[in-house]
Write a structure and sequence with these properties.
The chain is mainly alpha-helical. The chain has 15 helices and 2 strands. The longest helix is centred in the last third of the chain and has 28 residues. It is globular.
């Protein structure tokens, strides 16, 4: 499943909605995670831990091998997997689960999952960016409709347009948890921290959109224009949009939860520093 980003508040809203036909069958949810590739998308959250020291003004290298041990422990696959399942049991309607699973179970869907899983877990970020940028430049030169398909695809999988707020929420929760654990001395109250992060909102949104296009160009390079269009139209289906709204909410709630746990665990590795 495509990398997804949503504001965690979306999840709290979904949890309060009455009358949802919850998919309580955990075995069915396990199958859903695998067939859609969402299990690998969750596992790839571990790679985001590399940005944690930067957020705190620290250097990961200062922790040595302990940093790898700590992030492996906090971002354990089984922990994130169980967190996601717990949330999905309360929120994912059975007909939406079936709709998404049926698409990803097709030949095209499974090929897409293989490509997306490989892209999620790749640590060659610089190579991916360079390749994606080169592909975009080539598509622009020939005025290919594929660029439009990719842009539509990204818009469909972030249909509420809240990626920026999701990232801000993760940052706030991580920084507040780090301050509470004594890892840093935070000179700002939470409302002031949120206001500070919001000043970069437009620039962050533009960067996210650009990076999403580069990532999509790289990930789907082996697929034909017709296949990319078919996937785009599948993602634009209202039911699939609802699935992605929820998947985004779940993924970012899991990420925020693990970053808060990381902040608490970091107090064993690093003395307090002023931010």
């Amino acid at each position: 499943m495509r990398a997804v980003r949503y504001f965690a508040f979306t999840l709290s809203v979904l949890l309060m909605m009455p009358g949802l036909a919850f998919a309580a069958d955990r075995a069915k949810l396990e199958e859903f995670l695998e067939v859609t590739g969402f299990d690998v998308a969750l596992e790839s959250i571990r790679l985001s831990a590399s940005s944690a020291p930067d957020m705190l003004g620290l250097e990961a290298e200062a922790f040595g091998s302990e940093w790898t041990r700590l992030t492996t422990e906090v971002f354990a696959t089984d922990v994130m997997h169980d967190l996601a399942l717990d949330l999905l049991e309360k929120t994912l309607e059975d007909d939406l689960l079936t709709h998404a699973a049926d698409f990803y179970a097709t030949d095209l869907g499974q090929r897409l999952v293989v490509a997306e899983n490989s892209s999620h877990m790749s640590e060659e970020g610089e190579l991916k960016d360079e390749s994606g940028e080169a592909i975009i430049a080539g598509l622009a030169r020939i005025d290919s409709p594929r660029l439009d398909y990719l842009e539509r695809m990204n818009a469909a999988s972030d249909s509420a347009g809240t990626a920026v707020r999701a990232i801000q929420e993760v940052q706030v929760r991580f920084l507040m948890a780090a301050a509470g654990a004594g890892v840093i001395e935070l000179q700002l109250e939470e409302p002031d921290l949120r206001a500070l992060l919001e000043t970069d909102e437009d620039a962050m949104k533009a960067e996210i959109e650009a990076n999403a296009l580069i990532g999509s160009a790289y990930t789907y390079q082996a697929f034909s224009d017709a296949e990319v269009l078919e996937y785009t139209e599948a993602l634009e289906n209202p039911k699939m949009r609802k699935v992605y709204d929820l998947m985004n909410a779940v993924q970012y709630e899991v990420m925020a939860n693990r970053f808060e746990a990381l902040a608490v665990a970091m107090q064993r590795l690093q003395p307090s520093q002023e931010l």
